[in-house]
Amino acid sequence: MLRKDFISRSQYKQRLATFQSAMKLPMVIGQCFGLNPVIGIFDVDATKIKFKLCSARCLYTIFSILGQASMLFFSILKYLKDTDTSLSSNTTLAFYSSNFVTTVLFLRMATKWPRLCLQISMTEATSPNIDISLVKKCNMTCILVLALALVEHFLSDLSGLAAVIDCEPEKNVYEAFVKHSFPWVYAFVPYNHFIGFLTQVFNIQSTFTWSFADLFIICISFYLTSRLEQVNDKIVKARGKNMPQHFWRTVREDYNRAASLVRRVDEVIGAIIFISFANNLFFICLQLYNTLKPLHGYEQATYFMYSFIFLVMRSLAVSLIAAKVYAASRKPATSLYDVSYNAYSVEIQRFLNQVHGDTVALSGLQFFNIKKGLVLSIAGTIVTYELVLLQFTGVTPTSSPPVADLLS
């Protein structure tokens, strides 16, 4: 008679959650916006993943970088031309510079991605990752985050369109909308439909790159946490049992492989983590500042409120989910302390020393480790900078808008 927990070979393979399968949808979506241009993302075999400079994907990425560089160039020209240095005038420069840097960092990461996938595949061959929900979590996160980003982009365009219809009703709506959306471009070049189309394309790429960086970090964190939790499950199942020394040696080696993966991934994506957290911090401060100012019309109010809430929730998600990597790396200590005196061995002591001695966490170029306490530090920084902004700009939630703003 078969045991109830028996599963067939095909069922076992279906339960395997490889790095390739977990990152397939995020990679496909990223490449739609010119990010991480590697080939072979649909192959199960990690040796098929290659970075080729002359591939169509890489050429598309280079085209995207040149387009974002041109948008950044015009925003710098506008910044140098304008005499005012208000926070609002710096927003465009910050937005396009951060997205330009992010796209370049993803291209740089693509050169390291094949080797990283090969190393992860070798680890999975030694210690397969069995997590039925991993692929589903990554796919659902992709759909949810990008759907919310699409709503934000729609509200932004709706706010700009409403301003154009109110202020310039006699002009061609599309042309007026494009000029209103990208004044720093058309202050230096004449409008035509081709340039208008390109500016829209590069703006959409920048908008989704902004959200995709967080999405990418979240999916990577899901996978790394799953690797560590698999080790923790083995330890929990052995709780209260007199396990032999070779069992603890095997578990410690599994933990060491998972910790090495975290460090290797951190080396590859650390720069993206850094720019993502810096980006989120700046734009949360900006959107909070905008929501405290008197707003013109319900379209603008809806956009700023939604954008602020979306930014906060997205930043919280990436911080808390990435922090789970560190939390999972500390879990073994609790169960190891419960091992009885008779079962205690040198391997358990080495395991405890490794858990307490190493910091296994994702970081932003080693400037900060992502832990739960980081959320409180970021929140305190936001409040501090917001108070400084309000003090220097003289904006209060009840103050009247300047006459110039009402006439614009």
UniProtKB/TrEMBL annotation:
Per the record, its GO cellular-component terms are:
plasma membrane
UniProt topology in membrane: Multi-pass membrane protein
Q: Which GO terms describe its molecular function?
A: taste receptor activity
PANTHER family, alphabetized: GUSTATORY RECEPTOR, GUSTATORY RECEPTOR 5A FOR TREHALOSE-RELATED
Signal peptide as annotated in the record: none
The protein depicted here goes by the name: Gustatory receptor
Q: Where are the transmembrane segments?
A: 58-80, 92-110, 184-202, 208-225, 268-289, 301-323
Location within or outside the cell: Cell membrane
InterPro entries assigned: Gustatory_rcpt
Q: Which UniProt keywords apply?
A: Cell membrane, Membrane, Receptor, Transducer, Transmembrane, Transmembrane helix
GO BP annotations of the record are: sensory perception of sweet taste; signal transduction
Write the lineage as a comma-separated list: Eukaryota, Metazoa, Ecdysozoa, Arthropoda, Hexapoda
Q: What does this protein do?
A: Plays a role in the sugar gustatory response.
Record-linked Pfam families: Trehalose_recp (PF06151)
Lineage, top-rank taxon, reads: Eukaryota
UniProt entry tagged with the keyword Membrane: yes
Q: Which family does it belong to?
A: Belongs to the insect chemoreceptor superfamily. Gustatory receptor (GR) family. Gr5a subfamily.
